[in-house]
Automatic annotation (TrEMBL), chain A:
Annotated family: Belongs to the cation transport ATPase (P-type) (TC 3.A.3) family. Type IA subfamily.
Pfam families: E1-E2_ATPase, Hydrolase
Gene: kdpB
UniProt-listed CDD domains: P-type_ATPase_K
E.C. designation(s): 7.2.2.6
Region: Disordered, residue numbers: 1-24
Name by which UniProt lists this protein: Potassium-transporting ATPase ATP-binding subunit
Superkingdom of the source species: Bacteria
Entry keyword set: ATP-binding, Cell membrane, Ion transport, Magnesium, Membrane, Metal-binding, Nucleotide-binding, Phosphoprotein, Potassium, Potassium transport, Translocase, Transmembrane, Transmembrane helix, Transport
Localisation: Cell membrane
TrEMBL record, chain B:
Protein name: Potassium-transporting ATPase potassium-binding subunit
Transmembrane regions: 6-25, 59-80, 141-159, 180-201, 252-273, 285-304, 380-398, 419-438, 480-505, 526-548
Function: Part of the high-affinity ATP-driven potassium transport (or Kdp) system, which catalyzes the hydrolysis of ATP coupled with the electrogenic transport of potassium into the cytoplasm. This subunit binds the extracellular potassium ions and delivers the ions to the membrane domain of KdpB through an intramembrane tunnel.
Keyword field: Cell membrane, Ion transport, Membrane, Potassium, Potassium transport, Transmembrane, Transmembrane helix, Transport
Cell membrane found in the keyword field: yes
Similarity annotation: Belongs to the KdpA family.
Species annotation: Pseudonocardia humida
The encoding gene: kdpA
Taxonomy, superkingdom: Bacteria
Coiled-coil boundaries: none
Keyword tRNA processing attributed: no
Quaternary context: The system is composed of three essential subunits: KdpA, KdpB and KdpC.
C-alpha cells in the first residue's frame, strides 16, 4: 500500500490550475463563454449534428418549416417566430458548445505535454535505436535517463528514478518510480529527473493515458450513459405524444371553425415538447465529466460516474484513507513509582536518532506535552543509536560512560522485558502486561521503554502508539450514512484493533485481517445482495477487486495493472476522493431529473398562453384561461416561444454547475427538488411569459 | 330527506362497504395468485386443456398466451354472432332480418373480448339470449380474468428476483375465474334478483298501457349478466338503456350495489399488490391516489350538476335531463364517475346530457388512463406504469438510478412504460382527429359545436381506454366508426398488455435490492402526491387542446 500525506485538496487544485494554465474553477461560468462559443454553436446548426437529439431535431424541422412559410407568406409574426425558433436550436447548441469549450481548454494544456519525444528503444541484442515515440508498440523496451521525457505509458522493469509528473497531476514534488512492486508504473509525457530506467511500454500509440484523458475532456469519446439513454427515450415518447396532440388539433380546430396556421401549430409544438431539458441534456453530461476532471479524477466512461451516484457500499482502506499513514505516539503510561517526566525523558532520548515516523512522533509528543526539547544537544548527539532489527525487535540509545553511561531501549514488550532481565533488573510482569494489553484492546500498539543506569535496569513505562484518524472523517461518514451509503473499513489489523478504529472513525462496518481474497469475497457478497460497491486501490493485488467493484478508483501512484482494472484514476492519489466522486455522480443525475421536471412543468403555463390565443375568438369563454392578460394572440404565442428559448440560456449556468447537492436523505432531497423545480417550473413561466409580453406587445404588427 | 344528504349517505355507505372488504378481499386475491395448491375442479380443467399448472412461463410465453387467448376469443365470439339464426333462443333478432352484419359482429366481438363492452348494437332487437349468455357473459368473465392475470404478472415482476418466470397464464386465468369472479358473481346475481333485477329466458312480456294499447317489454337473463357486468368492469348492458333500465337496475339499493361491484375488485387489488410485495403501505399509497382522484372528480361533477347554468336547466329547476328520477343527481353522478373511473362503461344516466363540466369529468376520468381506480387488473397495471414514470423522474432527483420496489428502472423499463402510456393518447387523438375531419361525421352527431366534438372525442376515449360507456348523441353504426373504434379497442387493450408484460419480464430478471436511506421512499404521502400529479399532468398536457375545444369551452361558457 502506498500512503499519502494529507495536503489540503484546494491547495493542490490551485497549484494544478497554475501549472496547467487553467483558470476555470469547478463550475464557474462567465457570460463571456457564451459569446466565445457562438461560432461553434452556429456550426452545430448542421442538421446532421442534431440527429443525436430527437427533441432538437423536431425543433430544427419546425424552424425550417416556419422559415419557408415566412418566405412564402411574409408577415411580421411569422418572421419573429422563425427567428426565435432558430434561436431555440442555437441556444441548445450554445449550451453544448460552452460545455465542450471548457473541456477543450483543458485538452489543450494536456496536449502541450505530449511532446513528440524520440524514444531510445532497446533491440533484442541490447543495443539502442532511436524511434519516434508514436511508433512504440506494447512490449517495446525503452531507456529513459535524467532530463528525458518518458515516451509512453509503461512499467519500469529496470532501475529506479525520480520522476516529475506535474504535467499530468499538477503535483510539483517529484515521485519515485522503481522496478517491481507497486511503484513501477510511469505515464507518457512525464519527465525523469534523476537516474536511468528501462520502461516496458504497455499501451498502443493513441491509447495512452494522456490520449484517453484528452479524448475524455474534449467529449470526443462521450457516449450516452444508461440513465441518459433512458431519459432520452422518455423525452422522445413525450415528444411523440405532443406531436400527435398538435397534429390532431388541426382537424378538431377545423371542425370547430378555427383552422390554425401552420406557424401557430409549429410554435405550439415547440413550446410543448421538452426543449429545455432536450437542449441541456448533453451539456449536463459533459459538465459532469468536467467537474470530475477539475478534481483531478479521470473516468474511463460516463457510465462509471453515473454508477458512482448509485453506490451503496464504500470500501475504504484504513491506512492512508481513514487514518494517517503511520501510527503516532499519543500517550505515555509510566509503571508505578516512576514519574511521568522520567519516562518522557527516556522515551525522548531513545527516539532522538530514530528517524521512523513512529520515532519522530514520540519526540514530538514529548516536546508538546512534557516541554522537552525537540532536538538533540551536544551531549546527546554523541550517543550511539541502536537501530531496530527484526531479531532484537527493539531500538534505543547508548550514552558513553564518560557522560552518564545510560542505556535506553524501547520496543515490543517481550523483547524489552527480556533485555531488562538480561541486564540483571527485575520486572513486574503483571503490571506491564496489564498496561500493554489495555493499549492493545483499545486499538493501539504498546512500546515498552526500559532504562539501565547506575541504579540498574528497570522498565519505566509504556508508550501508546495509535492510529490517528484523519480529522473530519467521522463527519464525512455521517454524511455518507445520510445519503444511504454504508462504509466498510478494510484493514490488515486484528479484529480488536479494527473495531476500536472503526468506532472512532465512525464507519459502519470493518473487515479485519483482510486478505485480497477476503476483499474480493466481500465485494461479491455485497453485489449478490444487489448493492453497488465502490473501492479504491493501488497495488497489483488490488486489481481483481478493482475490476470486480462497480466503481473502482485507482491511485495514480499505483501499478499499471491497478489503473487498467479500475474505471477511474485519481491523479492526486487521494483515497478520500471517492467521496467526492460519489457526490459528483449524484449531482449529475439530480441535475438531469430536476431540469426534466422543470421542463415538463413549464408546459402548463404555455397552454394558458397559447390555447386562449388560438381559440378565444371562436369560444370567447376560453378567454378566461388568459390569466396572464397577454395583449394579443400573436404576442401571447410569440412570448411563449421567446420564453421557451431564453429559459435555455438562463439555465446554462445551472446545467454546467450542477444542481446544488447536500448529503441528506432521499426523502428530503426529493421534497426540496420537487418544490424548487416542480412548483418553480409551474410558476416561473407564468411570470416570464407575462414579462416578455410587456415588451413584445410594443412590436408593431404583433 | 334532502337530495344532497341522501347522496352523501350513499357515498358513505359505499365507502364503508369498500373499507369493510378491503383487507380480507385484497388478501384473498393475493393468496389466490400466490398459493401452490390447486383446486380439484382446476386440476380437471388443466388436464382437459393439457396444461402443466406448475410450470412457470417467460414473459414472452405468458404474452403469447394472453394474445392467443384473446384472438381465439374474438374469432369465436364473431362466429357465434354470425351463426345466430341457427341458435336457440334467438327470437329472430338481428339487423335487417335475423343476422348480425360483419362490421357490427367484429366491433362487438372485439369490444367484449377487450373488456370494453362498447355497444354499437341495440341488445333487445339484435342479440338473442344464446349469444348474450354463451358469448357476451362468458367474455365478461374471461376478459376480466385476463386483466387480473396481467396485473398479477406485473406485480410478480416486482416481487420475484433474478428469474425469467412470471407464473403460468392458464393458472392465473383459471384461478381468477374459479376463485374470484364466478363465486362473487353468483352471490350478487341472486342478491340483484332479490332487489328486482329480472332473470328470464322469455323474449318479452306483453303489457297493456294506461291508454289501452299493448306493448311488448323485452325480458332477458339479466341478473346473471348484470353481476359480472359490474364486477368485471365490463359494462355491456343486456338492455340498450343499460343500468338506467329498471330491469337491470330497479332502485337505489341495486344502484348502490352495482356501484360497489364496479369498484370492489380494482380498489382491493391495491391491497393485493401491497400484500404480494410484502409491504402493505405500498398498496396503501396507490389506494390513496386512486381514492383522491375518484373523490375529487366526483366532487367536481356533483358541484357542476347541482349548479347548472343553461337556461333550460334553470327553468326546469335541476339538471335532470337524461337522469332517472329514482337515482337523482347523486346516484347518477356516483355511477357516472365510478363507471368512467373503472373501465366499466355501464351507465345509469346519459352522460351526453350532463353539464359541460360534469361531462368533461367523465371524459377526463377515462383520459387519465383509467386509473381511478381503473378496470379489473387494467387499473392496477395502468397505475403501476404511471408510477414507474413518476419514480423515474423523481428518482433521478435524489441522485440515484431510479428504483421502484427494489428494481432499477433503466432503458428497458422506461421504454416499456413509454410504449404503454403512448398507445392510448395516440389512438384517441388520431381517431378523434380523423373522425372529425370526415365530411360525413357531422351528420352522425346529434349536436354541433363544442358538444358535437365532445361526442366524437368521448367515443374514441371510451374505445381506446376499453371503457365502453357512450356519451351517446353519436351514431356509430357506419363501417368507418365500427372498424376504427374496433381497432382502437383492440390496440388500446393488447399493446399496453404486451408492454406491461415486457416490463414485468425485465423486472423479474433483476435482483431485488433492499431499499436504504438513499432510495426514494415510495410508501409515503409525498410519493402519493407525485404519482397523482404525474397522472394528472400527463393527461392534462396531452389532452388540454382537445378538451379546450370540447367540454372546457362548454364548461367555461
Amino acid at each position: 500500500m502506498t500512503t499519502t500525506e494529507e495536503r489540503p485538496t484546494s491547495e493542490r487544485r490551485d497549484r494544478h490550475a497554475r501549472r496547467t494554465g487553467r483558470t476555470v474553477g469547478a463550475g464557474a461560468f462567465s457570460p463571456g463563454q457564451l459569446w466565445r462559443s457562438l461560432p461553434v454553436a452556429l456550426r452545430k446548426l448542421d442538421p446532421r449534428t442534431q440527429l443525436r437529439n430527437p427533441v432538437m431535431v423536431v425543433v430544427w424541422v419546425g424552424s425550417a418549416l416556419v422559415t419557408v412559410l415566412a418566405v412564402v407568406q411574409p408577415s411580421v409574426f411569422a418572421w419573429w417566430i422563425a427567428v426565435w425558433l432558430w434561436s431555440t436550436v442555437l441556444f441548445a447548441n450554445l449550451a453544448e458548445a460552452v460545455a465542450e469549450g471548457r473541456g477543450k481548454a483543458q485538452a489543450e494544456s494536456l496536449r502541450r505535454t505530449r511532446t513528440e519525444a524520440v524514444a531510445r528503444r532497446l533491440t533484442a541484442a541490447g543495443a539502442e535505436e532511436p524511434v519516434p515515440g508514436t511508433e512504440l508498440r506494447i512490449g517495446d523496451r525503452v531507456v529513459v535517463e535524467a532530463g528525458e521525457v518518458i515516451p509512453g505509458d509503461g512499467d519500469v522493469v529496470e532501475g529506479i528514478a525520480t520522476v516529475d509528473e506535474s504535467a499530468i497531476t499538477g503535483e510539483s514534488a517529484p515521485v519515485i518510480r522503481e522496478s517491481g512492486g507497486d511503484r513501477s508504473s510511469v505515464t507518457g509525457g512525464t519527465t525523469v529527473l534523476s537516474d536511468r530506467i528501462v520502461v516496458q511500454i504497455t499501451t498502443e500509440p493513441g491509447e495512452s493515458f494522456v490520449d484517453r484523458m484528452i479524448a475524455l475532456v474534449e467529449g470526443a469519446s462521450r457516449q450516452k450513459t444508461p440513465n441518459e439513454i433512458a431519459l432520452t427515450i422518455l423525452l422522445s415518447a413525450l415528444t411523440v405524444i405532443f406531436l400527435l396532440a398538435v397534429v390532431a388539433l388541426q382537424p378538431m380546430a377545423g371542425y370547430a371553425g378555427a383552422q390554425q396556421s401552420l406557424v401557430v401549430l409549429t410554435a405550439l409544438l415547440v413550446c410543448l415538447i421538452p426543449t429545455t431539458i432536450g437542449a441541456l441534456l448533453s451539456a449536463i453530461g459533459i459538465a459532469g465529466m468536467d467537474r470530475l476532471v477539475q478534481r483531478n479524477v479521470l473516468a474511463t466512461s460516463g457510465r462509471a460516474v453515473e454508477a458512482a451516484g448509485d453506490v451503496d457500499t464504500l470500501l475504504l482502506d484504513k491506512t492512508g484513507t481513514i487514518t494517517h499513514g503511520n501510527r503516532r505516539a499519543t500517550e505515555l503510561m509510566p509503571v508505578a513509582g516512576v514519574p511521568v517526566a522520567e519516562l518522557a525523558a527516556a522515551a525522548r532520548l531513545s527516539s532522538l536518532a530514530d528517524q521512523t515516523p513512529e520515532g519522530r512522533s514520540i519526540v514530538a509528543l514529548c516536546a508538546a506535552e512534557h516541554g522537552l526539547p525537540g532536538g538533540a544537544d551536544a551531549r546527546e548527539a554523541v550517543a550511539e543509536f541502536v537501530p531496530f532489527t527484526a531479531q532484537t525487535r527493539m531500538s534505543g540509545i547508548d550514552i558513553p560512560d564518560q557522560h552518564d553511561g545510560r542505556q535506553v531501549r524501547k520496543g515490543a514488550a517481550a523483547s524489552v522485558v527480556a533485555w531488562v532481565a538480561e541486564q540483571g533488573g527485575t520486572v513486574d510482569d503483571a503490571e506491564v502486561g496489564d498496561l500493554t494489553d489495555g493499549i492493545g484492546r483499545q486499538g493501539g500498539t504498546p512500546l515498552v521503554v526500559a532504562q539501565r543506569d547506575g541504579n540498574g535496569a528497570r522498565v519505566l513505562g509504556v508508550i501508546r502508539l495509535s492510529d490517528v484518524v484523519k480529522p473530519g472523517m467521522a463527519e464525512r461518514f455521517a454524511a455518507m450514512r445520510a445519503m444511504g451509503i454504508r462504509t466498510v473499513m478494510i484493514t490488515g489489523d486484528n479484529p480488536l484493533t479494527a473495531r476500536a478504529i472503526a468506532g472512532e472513525a465512525g464507519v459502519d462496518d470493518y473487515l479485519a485481517e483482510a486478505t485480497p481474497e477476503d476483499k474480493m469475497a466481500l465485494i461479491r457478497e455485497e453485489q449478490e445482495g444487489g448493492r453497488l460497491v465502490a473501492m479504491t486501490g493501488d497495488g497489483t493485488n488490488d486489481a481483481p477487486a478493482l475490476a470486480q467493484a462497480d466503481v473502482g478508483v485507482a491511485m495514480n501512484t499505483g501499478t499499471a495493472a491497478a489503473k487498467e482494472a479500475a474505471n477511474m484514476v485519481d491523479l492526486d492519489s487521494d483515497p478520500t476522493k471517492l467521496i467526492e466522486v460519489v457526490e459528483i455522480g449524484k449531482q449529475l443525475l439530480i441535475t438531469r431529473g430536476a431540469l426534466t421536471t422543470f421542463s415538463i412543468a413549464n408546459d402548463l403555463a404555455k397552454y394558458f398562453a397559447i390555447l386562449p390565443a388560438m381559440f378565444a375568438a371562436l369560444y370567447p369563454a376560453l378567454g378566461t384561461l388568459n390569466i396572464m392578460r397577454l395583449a394579443t394572440p400573436q404576442s401571447a404565442i410569440l412570448s411563449a416561444v421567446i420564453f421557451n428559448a431564453l429559459i435555455i440560456v438562463a439555465l446554462i449556468p445551472l446545467a454546467l454547475r450542477g444542481v446544488r447537492y447536500r448529503p441528506t436523505s432521499a426523502a428530503k432531497l426529493l421534497r426540496r427538488n420537487l418544490l424548487v423545480y416542480g412548483l418553480g417550473g409551474v410558476v416561473t413561466p407564468f411570470v416570464g411569459i407575462f414579462l416578455i409580453d410587456l415588451l413584445v406587445r410594443l412590436i408593431p404588427g404583433i | 330527506m334532502p337530495d344532497t344528504l341522501a347522496g352523501l349517505l350513499q357515498v358513505a355507505a359505499l365507502v364503508l362497504l369498500l373499507a369493510l372488504v378491503y383487507r380480507p378481499f385484497g388478501d384473498h386475491m393475493a393468496r389466490v395468485f400466490s398459493t401452490e395448491k390447486h383446486w380439484r375442479i382446476e386440476k380437471v380443467l388443466y388436464r382437459l386443456a393439457r396444461v402443466d399448472p406448475d410450470t412457470g412461463q417467460r414473459w414472452t410465453t405468458y404474452a403469447a398466451g394472453v394474445l392467443g387467448f384473446s384472438v381465439v376469443s374474438v374469432l369465436l365470439l364473431y362466429l357465434l354472432q354470425r351463426v345466430q339464426p341457427l341458435l336457440p333462443l334467438g327470437f329472430g333478432r338481428g339487423v335487417d332480418g335475423d343476422t348480425v352484419p360483419p362490421a357490427m359482429a367484429f366491433n362487438t366481438a372485439v369490444s367484449f373480448v377487450t373488456n370494453t363492452n362498447w355497444q354499437s348494437y341495440v341488445p333487445e332487437t339484435v342479440l338473442g339470449h344464446t349469444v348474450q349468455m354463451a358469448g357476451l357473459t362468458v367474455q365478461n368473465v374471461l376478459s376480466a380474468a385476463v386483466g387480473m392475470a396481467v396485473a398479477v404478472a406485473l406485480v410478480r415482476g416486482f416481487v420475484r428476483s433474478g428469474t425469467d418466470r412470471l407464473g403460468n397464464v392458464w393458472v392465473d386465468l383459471t384461478r381468477g375465474v374459479v376463485r374470484i369472479l364466478l363465486p362473487i358473481s353468483l352471490v350478487f346475481a341472486l342478491v340483484l334478483v332479490a332487489t328486482g333485477v329480472v332473470m328470464s329466458l322469455r323474449s318479452g312480456v306483453e303489457v297493456t298501457g294506461v291508454d289501452g294499447s299493448t306493448t311488448t317489454l323485452p325480458l332477458a337473463p339479466a341478473a346473471s349478466q348484470e353481476a359480472i357486468k359490474e364486477l368485471g368492469t365490463n359494462g355491456g348492458g343486456v338492455f340498450n338503456a343499460n343500468s338506467a333500465h329498471p330491469f337491470e337496475n330497479p332502485n337505489a339499493l341495486s344502484n348502490l350495489l352495482e356501484v360497489f361491484l364496479l369498484l370492489v375488485v380494482p380498489v382491493c387489488l391495491t391491497r393485493t399488490f401491497g400484500t404480494m410485495v410484502r409491504d402493505t403501505r405500498q398498496g396503501g399509497v396507490l389506494l390513496a391516489v386512486v381514492g383522491a382522484l375518484w373523490a375529487g372528480l366526483l366532487a367536481v361533477a356533483w358541484l357542476a350538476e347541482t349548479h347548472p347554468t343553461g337556461p333550460a336547466t334553470l327553468a326546469a329547476g335541476a339538471a335532470m335531463e337524461g337522469k332517472e328520477v329514482r337515482f337523482g343527481i347523486p346516484g347518477s353522478i356516483l355511477f357516472g364517475v365510478s363507471t368512467t373511473g373503472t373501465s366499466a362503461g355501464a351507465v345509469n344516466s346519459l352522460h351526453d346530457s350532463y353539464t359541460g363540466a360534469a361531462g368533461g369529468v367523465t371524459l377526463l376520468n377515462m383520459l387519465l388512463g383509467e386509473v381511478a381506480p381503473g378496470g379489473v387488473g387494467t387499473g392496477l397495471y395502468g397505475l403501476l406504469v404511471l408510477a414507474v414514470i413518476a419514480v423515474f423522474l423523481a428518482g433521478l432527483m435524489v441522485g440515484r438510478t431510479p428504483e421502484y420496489l427494489g428494481k432499477k428502472l433503466g432503458r428497458v423499463q422506461v421504454s416499456a412504460a413509454s410504449v404503454s402510456i403512448l398507445v392510448m393518447p395516440a389512438l384517441v387523438l388520431l381517431g378523434a382527429g380523423l373522425a372529425i375531419a370526415l365530411p360525413s361525421t357531422p351528420e352522425a352527431l346529434n349536436n354541433d359545436g363544442a358538444h358535437g366534438f365532445s361526442e366524437v372525442l368521448y367515443a374514441y376515449a371510451s374505445a381506446a381506454n376499453n371503457n365502453g360507456s357512450a356519451f351517446a348523441g353519436i351514431t356509430v353504426t357506419s363501417d368507418f366508426f365500427q372498424v376504427t373504434l374496433g381497432v382502437a379497442m383492440l390496440f388500446g387493450r393488447l399493446v399496453p398488455i404486451l408492454a406491461v408484460l415486457a416490463l414485468a419480464g425485465s423486472l423479474a430478471a433483476q435482483k431485488r435490492v433492499e431499499p436504504g436511506a438513499g432510495t426514494l421512499p415510495t410508501d409515503g404521502p409525498l410519493f402519493g402526491v407525485l404519482v397523482g400529479g404525474t397522472v394528472l399532468l400527463v393527461a392534462a398536457l396531452t389532452f388540454l387542446p382537445a378538451l379546450a375545444l370540447g367540454p372546457l369551452a362548454e364548461a367555461l361558457a
